[in-house]
Amino acid sequence: MLEMAETSDIKAIRSRVRAAGSSFYWAMRFLPENKRRTLFAVYAFCREVDDIADGHLSREAKIVALDQWRRRIDELYAGRPGDEITRALAPAITVHKLHKKDFIAVIEGMEMDARGPIVAPALADLDFYCDRVASAVGRLCIHAFGEPTPAGERVADRLGRALQLTNILRDIDEDAAIDRLYLPAEYLTKAGVAITTPREVAQDPRLPAVIAAVGALAESAFADARAALAQCDKDAVRPAVIMMQVYRRHLDALRANGWKPVPPPRGLARLKDKAAKLWTAVHHGLF
After folding, report:
1. Which of 49, 123, 264, 275 ranks highest by number of CB atoms within 10 Å?
2. Is residue 133 located within the same domain as residue 79?
3. Interval 267-280: pLDDT, tens
4. DSSP letter at 132?
5. What would the mean pLDDT of 62-77 be, rounded to a whole number?
6. Residues 255, 216: contact at Cβ < 8 Å?
C-alpha cells in the first residue's frame, strides 16, 4: 500500500510540474529518474508556497498558510510526512541530504512577499530576498544533482541570484500591475527615478538605466556561476547549465532592446520562444 501511495504522489507531482509549463520541467527531464523525482518534488514545494504568496488570500491568511508549510517541513524532518509533496521528499532528505534550513529559507522568502508588497527594497534587502527565494532553491537542487561541493554551493548561490534578478527584470510590468517593484532603491535614486508607485516607476523614461545596472549584477552572477560550473561534474550539473542558458536568453533580449522591458511573446513569437527553450534543453542535455 505504501509503495502504491508513493507512486500516486509522484505521478501527481509530475503532472503538476508539467502543467506549469516551466523550463524547469525540460531541464530536469535529462536527470536519472531518482534525481528527477526529487527535483520535481522540490519544484512542487516551491510552487505551492509561491502560489500562497502570490494568491488572493488576505495577508494574515497567507502568513497562516505559510506557517502551516513550516510545520509540514518540521513534520517531514521528524519522520512524519503528511501530504503528497512531503511524502515524495521524505526519501530525498536522507539520500540527497537536503537541508531543512533551505526549505525554511524558501518559506521566509515567500513571507517577505506575503507581508509586502515589496516596493523598491534596499540593495541588501534585495540580495537577501534573492538568497531566500532562489539561491536556497539552488542549494536544494545542487544536493539532488549530486554535487554538494564548494563549487556546487557557489553555483547555487550565484546562479540563483542571476536567475532571480533576470526574473525581476523580465517581469517589471507584471509586478507593477500588482503593486510590486523589486528594483533597488539605490539604483532608482541614482538614475533620478522618483520612488512613487510601482506603476509610475515602470513608466519612467529613465528606467532603462536602472534595468541596465541590475542587468550588470545579473551578468556578474552568471559569470561567477559559469566559472563554478566548470569545476563541477558536467553530467551532474547539466540541468543547471540548461537553466542558465534559457535565462541568459531573457537577459540578452533585454540588452538588445536597449534595456527596455520586453513584452511577453504572443502568438507565433510565443511558439518560437518555446521552441528555442526546448532546443536549448535538448542541445545542452545531450552534448
Report:
1. 49
2. no
3. 444 434 443 333 33
4. I
5. 98
6. no
CA atoms within 13 A on the CB side of 265: 13
Measured between alpha carbons, how far apart are the two ends of the chain, in Å?
40
Confidence check: pLDDT of 62 > 80: yes
Q: What is the CA radius of gyration of the chain?
A: 19
Query: Looking at the 3D structure of the chain, how many domains does it have?
Result: 2
Domain hosting 264: range is 117-287
Map residue 52 onto helix, strand or coil: helix
Residue 233, phi-psi category: left (phi > 0), alpha (psi -120 to 50), beta (remainder): beta
- Calculate the CA 183 to chain-centre distance: 17
Q: What is the CATH number of the domain that holds 47?
A: 1.10.600.10
Cα–Cα distance, 85 to 131 (Å, whole number)? 23
Mark whether 177 and 281 lie in a shared domain: yes
- The rounded distance, in Å, linking the Cα atoms of 143 and 147 is 6
Residues 6+ apart with CB under 8 A from 46: 106, 137
Q: pTM, whole model, 2 decimals?
A: 0.85
For residues 174 and 249, membership in a common domain is answered with: yes
**Residue at which a domain ends, from 115, 132, 164:** 115
- Residues 264, 177 share a domain: yes
Q: Is the dihedral of CA 30, 32, 33, 38 positive or negative?
A: negative
Based on the fold, state whether residues 103 and 180 are members of the same structural domain: no
Domain boundary among 89, 115, 141: 115
